[in-house]
Amino acid sequence: MANTSDISRGMIIKLDGSLYTVVEFGENKTARAAAKVWAKLKGVDNSRSIEKTWNSGDTIHPVRVERKTYQFLYKDDTGYNFMDNETFEQIALAETLVDAPQFLKEAQEVSVLINTETEQPMSVELPDKIVLKVTYSEPGVKGDTATRTLKPATVETGATVNVPLFVNEGELIRINTKTGEYVERVKE
Fold first, then answer.
1. Strands of the sheet with 120-125, listed across from one edge
2. Residues in domain Elongation factor P C-terminal (predicted)?
3. Using CA atoms, how far apart are residues 183 and 138, in angstroms rounded to an integer?
4. Is the pLDDT confidence value at 186 over 80?
């Protein structure tokens, strides 16, 4: 058991029978009323996003989670297949459990969150930023790089990312996996 003062970003809590991860939280204090704690929550076992408010000091139910490093192997009819880097055990997970599956490439290292009570995988998180190769992009026009104009580019995983005009086919770019946005060009 814990109370609202223990809430932190990334914590997973059980609420109304479902599991949610804390995306953002804060406290509202007013002169007349008791302090309230609010949190933006994203569903772990469902795709809902909700906001919840508690009175300060209320009891919450955190879920113990273990983070393990897995390697992405391949995708087939059973789902996305991952291998534990320590035990070499393989698991297949549904696409709904994978955060940003469009950026997964073979041999990519990911973090799998496992519920320690049930030993069930809850979600797969990619690193915040990854480097991918641009496989297709329209060539940029020389001298047309002064403005922050973007063009679509296809990366090696098949996903489309908007990139600045100076990025060309065959170059490596860093992508933010949370937002799906271009961050910078990477020198080989």
1. 90-93, 79-84, 65-76, 109-115, 120-125
2. 130-185
3. 19
4. yes
For position 47, what pLDDT does the model report? 72
The answer to whether 66-125 and 129-185 have equal CATH topology is yes
The CATH architecture assigned to 66-125 reads: Beta Barrel (2.40)
Phi, psi of 17 (to 5 degrees): 85, -5
* pLDDT at residue number 49: 87
Q: What is the pLDDT of residues 26-81, one digit of tens each?
A: 988 887 878 899 999 988 767 788 999 998 889 999 988 888 999 999 999 989 99
Going by the DSSP 8-state scheme, the letter that residue 165 receives in this structure is: T
Residue in 42, 35, 37, 55 with CA at minimum distance from that of residue 15: 42
Q: Which residue has the tokens 């190769």?
A: 133
Q: Which residue do the tokens 């063009």 mark?
A: 151
- In sequence order, what are the beta bridge partners of 175? 130, 182
Q: In 10 A of CB 171, how many CB atoms?
A: 16
181-186, strands of its sheet edge to edge: 160-164, 150-155, 129-137, 172-176, 181-186
Please provide the CATH number assigned to the domain covering 129-185: 2.40.50.140
Phi, psi (rounded to 5 degrees) for 158: 100, -10
pLDDT tier, 115 (very low <50, low <70, confident <90, very high otherwise): confident
